[in-house]
Every structure is written in C-alpha cells, then in structure tokens.
Amino acid sequence: MSVVDETLKRSGQSTKQEARSGRGWYAVVARTGLVAKGVSFGLVGALAIKLALGHGGKATSREGALAQLSHDLFGKIVLIALAAGFAAYALWRFIQAFAERRDPDENEGTVWAKRVGYVGRGLIYSGLAYSTVKILAGSGNTSQNARAHKSTAAVLDWPAGRWIVGAIGLAIVGVGMWNLYRGLARKFEDRWRVVRLSPSVRTWGARAGVLGHVARFVVFGLIGVFLVKAAIDYRPKDAIGIDGALQKLAHASYGPYLLGLTAAGLIAYGVFCLVDAVLRDVSANT
Description:
mainly alpha; globular
C-alpha cells in the first residue's frame, strides 16, 4: 500500500470515528448546515406571509428567496454565510452515507436505502449551495416552476417517461406523508439530546416542529400531486416547485388564509431547524 493510500485510509477511519461519535468538526459541520436550512425556510415563509397579508411579497422557492437578498451588501454577506451553510449540510449528509453501518436488527438493504437518502439530501443542498453562489455572481435566478417544467418535459420524452414522472410524483407525495407523520407523532424528538436549555425552549421548539412538518406536508403533497397530474395528462407545465405550490394556495378559495397558514408553518419549520441544530444528536447511525 502506497503512502497516499495509507493516508487516505487513515483519514477515512478518522472521519468515520468523528461521525459516529457526533463530536468535533463533524458536529460543527452538521449544526451549521441545520442553521442554514432553517434560515432558508424562514425566508421563504416570510416572503409568502407578506403576500398573504397583502403587503407586496411573493410566493417563491428558496432560491427565489435568496435572490431577494442579493441587492445590498448585508444581504450578500448573508448569502455568503448561507452558501457555506448549505455546503456544510451537504458535506454532513455525504459523511453520514459514508459512515453508516448496519445495526444488528437491520438488513443490508435498509442500510443502503439510508445511504441513498443521505446522498440525495446531500445533492439537493449541493445544488442549493451552487445556486446561491450563482446568485452572488449575478447569474440570475430561474424559478423552480420553470425548472420543473423543463425537467418534466425532458423526462416525459424518455421511454416510459410518463411512468417515471408519475413514480417521482408519488415518491414526493410519500415524502409529504412522511413529514406529516413525523410531525404529528413528534418523531423528530427521538433524535434530541438532553441539553441544558430552558424547558420552554424545548417545548416551543417541538411545537414549531409539528407546525413546520405539517406545512412541509402541504407543500410536498401539492408538488407530488401536480407532478402525477403532469404525467397523466402529458403536460409538463402542470409540474410545479415550491414557488408553484405556494402560488396554488394563494389562488385557491380562501387563498390568503391557506397561504398565510402554510407560510407561518414554514417559518415555524425554520425555527424548529434552529432548535434542532442545538438539540439534535448528529452522530451517524442515529
């Protein structure tokens, strides 16, 4: 074994140890990522609630919300911090996938399913970090709706494209249902450590978690349903992103109320992420 191979092996072993202990630089990376995640959802909720209250805002995706910050120096400083935070979140998830190990009551398939989930989240936040850097560089911002239309049209042209798009839509609906279950059952508390915080902080953090996960159920549910509709009707323009989901709420009966409640839920999810950044046991295999 060469010196380089030996160095890489030791580095990999050290990384696994840090991840499985949930301490050191690995914990800093994970908690930084959770803070950035919370801030990004809070921004989306704040802009959407302005629209619901009739004060000018607009329903937008996280990239759209970030683009609103790019017009002044302070906003650009925040964007730089968020780009680093999103990159940290992505790195955390990639390390989780690398460090994941099989528990005695798990089979190999379950372990690999977890790894795929971690990698998927890592890729999403890698893309968000990249989009944030592009906004900082002045490359503009494309709405999630437009990207959803373009991507759906491309996949629909593949062999069995309708089935693929429909399956992805159902998977997103499943993600929404999982958020609803995780929120109402307060499963997120299973990963919280015993930390010396005011009991009221923990209580209100949990309540924010419930509201936030329900709001995510609404958003992901709408995205998934309209993606399935795009597959059935062979209409790429039916596909929507987060901005499109919020727009659908705004245009529905009692739209301002529905949008306002969902927007408040997204802000609550942002608050939950900040509490989660403090309380969560981020060690691998938890």
